[in-house]
Amino acid sequence: MGKKAVITGAFSFTGAAVAEELIRRGWKIHTLTNRARPAEAGEITSSPLKFDLPYLEERLRGADVFINTYWVRVPWKGVTFQAGVENSRLLVKAAVAAKAPRLVHVSVSRAEKGTNLGYYRGKREVEKCVSASGLSYAIVCPTLALGPNDVLTNNMAWFLRRFPIFPVPQGGHYRLQPVTLGDMGRIIADAAESRENLKVDAAGPDVWAYRDYLRLLAEACGAKPVFMDTPNGFALAGIRLAELFLGDVVLTREELLGLQQELLVSDQPPLGRESAADWLRQNGHRLGRVYANDVDRHFGPGSTKPVIPKW
Ligand SMILES: NC(=O)c1ccc[n+]([C@@H]2O[C@H](COP(=O)([O-])OP(=O)(O)OC[C@H]3O[C@@H](n4cnc5c(N)ncnc54)[C@H](OP(=O)(O)O)[C@@H]3O)[C@@H](O)[C@H]2O)c1
Question: Measured in angstroms, how far is the CA atom of residue 15 from the centroid of ligand 1?
Fold first, then answer.
């Protein structure tokens, strides 16, 4: 009988990619999610993600690995980064109580360098909790993931397609190192199958200056806007205005500052093999056709619908 993994979010983005990869390797998957089962779920079983210790312990009992992708990208309606930290601590506590043989936690690249920012500070706190859990663990730290149903790059493409001018905060010289979702699924699955305590980045083979990444993305989706070098305040004011119409959080100030602090670049040899440029060239025609509303996806009617990352 195959080994069993419990994964958060197998009917959404990262969790779905990891589930797909582990199923290919013969694993059985149970997911914790509040989304409805999609037709593609196959043999994946599911139960609601509830932050209740005895409930979680029961769900994790008997699993060979618990893979935690849970996090709050955007504080919304009282769900803060601190709530994300507390909920993550509870998930780790449940894994300890269930004596999970392996805990794989998905964090973010360079959390330790971004502790001036709430998102990264929270991530770092949870990383410490995982490494102090006493369980066999892996912490996987993605940079920026690229895949079907992605939010950030898709929505950049949405703006590039629709507006003649695109603001580039502070010239866009800062770098990023995107990773494809397929690579990310494989790196997390490898971490699940390893027995070592480890902390690895999930980063792709290429590093781009943000302004070059934007140009590549524009070219890949056939958009020809004028790129305008702006101060951060100007770009963020434009984004806040767009958010009023979209009913979403497009990009937080902290995400922009994290990008400018080059937190989305790894200092390890890249484990990702797929070139982001190739991926964008192959998939650019699909990016940005439809706006991906992240607030709806996590807090609105969209929060119970599956977001399986397939085109
Ligand atoms: N995507 C990226 O580019 C990227 C980059 C760096 C780091 N990461 C990290 O990788 C992990 C997975 O990211 P992702 O993009 O795949 O995230 P995601 O799909 O938005 O969510 C991952 C998990 O968190 C749960 N979740 C998110 N917001 C929630 C909320 N408000 N209430 C309850 N549950 C919530 C999701 O639940 P559902 O099952 O309901 O969807 C899912 O289980 C996260 O820890 C993230 O910080 C991602």
Answer: 8
| Distance of CA 3 from the midpoint of ligand 1 (Å) | 24
**Domain around 187:** 4-145+179-202
Closest ligand 1 atom to residue 70 Cα is 24
Q: Is the CB of 71 under 6 A from ligand 1?
A: yes
Specify if 280 maps to a domain.
Answer: yes
Closest residue to atom 33 of ligand 1, CA basis: 298
pTM of the model: 0.97
Q: Whole-angstrom Cα distance, residue 255 to residue 27?
A: 35
Please, are residues 192 and 138 in contact by the beta-carbon 8 Å criterion?
yes
Specify burial of residue 136 (Cβ count, 10 A radius: 0-12, 13-18, 19+): middle
Q: 64 and 188: one domain?
A: yes
CA–CA distance, 60 with 193 (Å, rounded to integer): 17
Question: Which tokens go with 90?
Answer: 């509870």
Q: What is the pLDDT along the chain (311 residues), one digit of tens a residue?
A: 689 999 999 999 999 999 999 999 999 999 999 999 998 899 999 999 999 999 999 999 999 999 999 999 988 988 999 999 999 999 999 999 999 999 999 999 999 999 999 999 999 999 999 999 999 999 999 999 999 989 999 999 999 999 999 999 999 999 999 999 999 999 999 999 999 999 999 999 999 999 999 999 999 999 999 999 999 999 999 999 999 999 999 999 999 999 999 999 999 999 999 999 999 999 999 999 999 999 999 999 999 999 877 76
Question: Do both 140 and 52 map to the same domain?
Answer: yes
**Whose C-alpha lies nearest to ligand 1, atom 21?**
70
Q: Is residue 309 part of a domain?
A: no
Does 120 contact ligand 1 (Cβ within 6 A)?
A: no
